Predict the structure.
Amino acid sequence: MTESIQISAEELPPIAGWIFSMLGGEFDLNNASDMSAVWSGVFLLYGVILALAILTYKLGFARKLPVLKSAVVYGVLAVGCTILTVPLGLFLPIAEALVVSSFILGVYRYRLHKERSSRADASSS
């Protein structure tokens, strides 16, 4: 007799828990239909983490690069997000940390833009 392995949305970090609660909330990992729902949740979580990682990169670190170099950077980012999602994203608040970092970098970019525009207005006057 095999032991039933179950995962519940309440045991996961908030964003992962929300994704998995939309798919049913509680899953038996020995059941094939539940495993397909778990994989769907993992792919959705991967998409969220990848989108947030791209946003964080664009807000904080992106420079104008040629197309091929940009493709390499985003490819490496996609591979890194795979590593972040599968072993870590289900048990650590990776998506939440990316939301916070995107917010902080967005505020920084907004303030930098306002400061630069005020300097340009002061120098043109």
About this structure: The mean pLDDT is 90.
